[in-house]
């Protein structure tokens, strides 16, 4: 089921090319009125198309040069409370619920390895967390992206 029409996809593609483009610049580029672009942007925002605007910021720039993925096994009944506790840890950047042997993967940022150890201890101390396994992120091989999906959607239309 597609929620986006051709105009939405073209707008998102233009934003992927220049995420700081103004509404006026987008309107000119797409041959639309400013009001149409504003209305489309508001609709996309309300429908949850845009993820966090924080995503493009580097923790390294804030003094957190180490990132790690922590695999977490939990008691399923405790998952909502665990999610709340994880959200209260400032170094937690992202958490995903998974199927399979691991219940959660939590991306964290740390100042150094001792700090990473402390973060892991805080996660382990959350009621309902059974165990963790930590892997250091060495590099982003493929950064989070949607451009290939936008290109495929544009080709379909």
Describe the structure.
By secondary structure, the protein is of the alpha+beta class. 41% of the residues lie in helices and 19% in strands. The protein is built from six helices and four strands, in the order αααβαββαβα. The chain has a four-stranded antiparallel sheet. α1 runs antiparallel to α6 and α2 crosses α3. The radius of gyration is 20 Å and the shape is elongated.
Summarize this structure as a short list of keywords or feature phrases.
157 residues; elongated; 41% helix; 6 helices; 4 strands; alpha+beta; single chain
Order of helices and strands: HHHEHEEHEH
Distance between the amino and carboxyl termini: 14 Å
If strands are numbered along the chain, what order do they take across the biggest sheet? 2-3-1-4
The level of helicity is 40-55%
- How many strands in all? 4
Provide the structure class. Answer: alpha+beta
What portion of residues belong to β-strands? 15-25%
Number of helices: 6
**Biggest sheet statistics:** 4 strands, antiparallel
- Report the oligomer: single chain
- Spatial extent as radius of gyration: 20 Å
| Unreliable stretches | none
Shape: elongated
How would you state the average pLDDT, rounded?
93
Topology:
Layout: H1 6-17, H2 23-30, H3 34-46, E1 66-74, H4 79-87, E2 92-97, E3 104-110, H5 113-124, E4 129-136, H6 147-156
Antiparallel strand pairs: 1-3, 1-4, 2-3
Helix pairs in contact: 1-6, 2-3
């Amino acid at each position: 089921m597609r929620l986006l029409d051709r105009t939405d996809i073209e707008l998102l593609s233009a934003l992927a090319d220049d995420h700081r483009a103004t509404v006026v610049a987008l309107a000119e580029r797409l041959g639309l009125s400013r009001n149409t672009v504003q209305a489309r942007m508001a609709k996309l925002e309300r429908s949850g198309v845009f993820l966090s605007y924080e995503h493009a910021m580097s923790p390294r720039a804030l003094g957190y040069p180490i990132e790690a993925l922590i695999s977490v096994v939990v008691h399923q009944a405790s998952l909502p409370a665990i999610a709340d506790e994880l959200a209260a840890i400032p170094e937690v950047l992202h958490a995903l619920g998974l199927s399979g042997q691991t219940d959660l993967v939590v991306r964290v940022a740390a100042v150094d390895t001792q700090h990473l150890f402390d973060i892991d201890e805080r996660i382990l101390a959350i009621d309902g967390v059974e165990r963790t396994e930590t892997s250091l992120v060495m590099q982003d091989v493929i950064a989070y992206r949607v451009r290939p999906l936008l290109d495929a959607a544009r080709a379909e239309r």
